[in-house]
Amino acid sequence: MFQEVSKHKTGGRAGILKTRAASVKTPFFMPVATRGAVKSLEPAEVAATGAEVLLANTYHLHLAPGENTIKKLGGLHAFTGWNGPILTDSGGFQVFSLSNIRKITEEGVVFKDPASGREVLLTPEKSMQIQLALGADIIMAFDDVTGLDPGKAKVREAEAVERTHRWLLRSIAEFKKLTAKNPKSKRPLLFGIAQGGLDKKLRAKSVEFVQSTEVDGLGIGGLSVGEGTKQMHDMLKFLAPLYDPAKTRYLMGVGEPTNMRFAIQHGIDMFDCVLPTRNARHGSLWISGDKKLNLKNGQFAADKSPIDKTCDCYTCQQGYSRAFLRHLFKMTDPLAGKLASIHNLRYLQRICEQYR
Amino acid sequence: MFQEVSKHKTGGRAGILKTRAASVKTPFFMPVATRGAVKSLEPAEVAATGAEVLLANTYHLHLAPGENTIKKLGGLHAFTGWNGPILTDSGGFQVFSLSNIRKITEEGVVFKDPASGREVLLTPEKSMQIQLALGADIIMAFDDVTGLDPGKAKVREAEAVERTHRWLLRSIAEFKKLTAKNPKSKRPLLFGIAQGGLDKKLRAKSVEFVQSTEVDGLGIGGLSVGEGTKQMHDMLKFLAPLYDPAKTRYLMGVGEPTNMRFAIQHGIDMFDCVLPTRNARHGSLWISGDKKLNLKNGQFAADKSPIDKTCDCYTCQQGYSRAFLRHLFKMTDPLAGKLASIHNLRYLQRICEQYR
Lengths: 356, 356
Prior knowledge:
The structure is a homodimer of 356-residue chains.
Chain A: E1 2-7, E2 13-18, E3 23-26, E4 28-31, H1 43-48, E5 54-56, H2 58-63, H3 67-72, H4 75-80, E6 86-88, H5 92-98, E7 100-104, E8 109-112, E9 119-122, H6 124-134, E10 138-140, H7 153-179, E11 189-194, H8 200-212, E12 217-220, H9 229-239, E13 248-251, H10 257-265, E14 270-273, H11 275-281, E15 284-287, E16 291-294, H12 314-318, H13 322-330, H14 334-354
Parallel strand pairs in A: 4-14, 5-6, 6-10, 10-11, 11-12, 12-13, 13-14
Antiparallel strand pairs in A: 1-2, 2-3, 7-8, 8-9, 15-16
Helix pairs in contact in A: 6-7, 7-8, 10-14, 11-14, 13-14
């Protein structure tokens, strides 16, 4: 489902990823629509930044409103009004980072729903069932994430990789069972996830294992979880020669301009990250040269210029001044976060477009 | 500056109000852009609801970012991106309702800025200076509001009316002084405000006094401040025969559909109210027949229909379902408040359009 179109002299590549919802150009960045919507933005506003694919969180949507409600309403696309491809994560990352984990077994993970207090079991099979019920176009296998808990270190990391691989095989089996009746053109894509932390041997093993299965793409999980930039870049450099040209490569959770450029130049096709929108809602914006400015600063109080004179985003083109945006931020008007989100999302899309 | 176009058999009228920014049809409803922006909405989104005139709050803008900053930035229109007429209130209402009043004298009102703690003096002259610096197209005279403090009752009410009249004369004098050099076509309009609470004698006296001055319009203040619907309607009925056809009549702070219909049928041309947008942000929406629904209710969790099938607002036309909007409300996504605000604002504009 991935077609390489051109290779960059830098080592990166441009291509086309065919999904059932649409064919989209790579490399691309997916804005995070945690609960089905990118906070404070309408689907058309997200699309206007150049985004073609959204990421939605399985974990959050499972808890509310629930995949059954969304299925009844016609799936995520009909529910949210976003017609392009949607990728759902497996829920693994959120389970590990956000909830009170009760128990991890070979079967899956039992966690406590923070809202209701009830115990919820998430397994590879359950994750496939939820993602398919949501109607995602790109589905992620359920993985065992350890990157967030470096204390458990080496042994746990090796175990987690092994378990991630076993869970991948169970994810694939369940996915095939549930999509057996779909005509091929109506089948979502399935991506596996390679783990291994900062251990190169484990990483290589994991990437090779994932690529040896029938998955359409390779997610690289467990990076951008607190390690240094140099460590992340080292790992991306190390992994670059190992990629299978036929599989799409998705660097999960990365969305900082410098890291994105480096990753694209080392063969990565896809990104997602909450950073551009979360930062934007706090007034932190990227301007040319990957510099940052914080619009809440007093120095912008009477600044008539747009966020970035060279920017082609809606917010800058519309002529909203730094002074007005700063005022909106000071007044906690959600319009500030929206207009700033548009700017940051467009900033990342422009980076991707430079490599297509 | 007001031209009557037609009279309704109900007693109301349709007309055209000429301001320096644009000529607009009456009756109309002004969305409240407290700090220069209607919360969570872009100017173009506000305009798309049919709104032609915005109300901004002198009190809030004086405190932040300050009229000098706004003037430096080219005035409210350039600052906010709203090109249509802008009405600014006098600041009187907010001073009385929001702040710690330190002292009311014949000179004006000393209040404490809740943010900085500093003491600020607002006088009729100061109010004119601020509103003209902001660049408003319709300016309100500074008034003494008592409606909020029924405990002080009769004597204070009569005093307040007298003071409001004296402050009106000072407002007019200051306004004339400051706009003396403006060519007539570039001069903002000035409206006076009639007070008098629920005392018909005082009200009649106040309306007559305001209309006897050179003001372009008559604001009716101190209603919709907690009195019953019947009392408000009684007063509007009582005042209807007293209006001067040449002056625009502005019922301040009223924006409930039933009250608006009643008021239009009794000669009112203009309205403003925070109700449609504030209610919307809490999920409370008007649907045909002036009924209300609260989108946060569980009954809408799987409801595919739009807020109101008969509604022509952007939100309903775009196909956003009650289920999705409810989900956004539950997730506290500001997009919910925005889409709901659009619906409620359009609801009130449609009422006005029916009478034009």
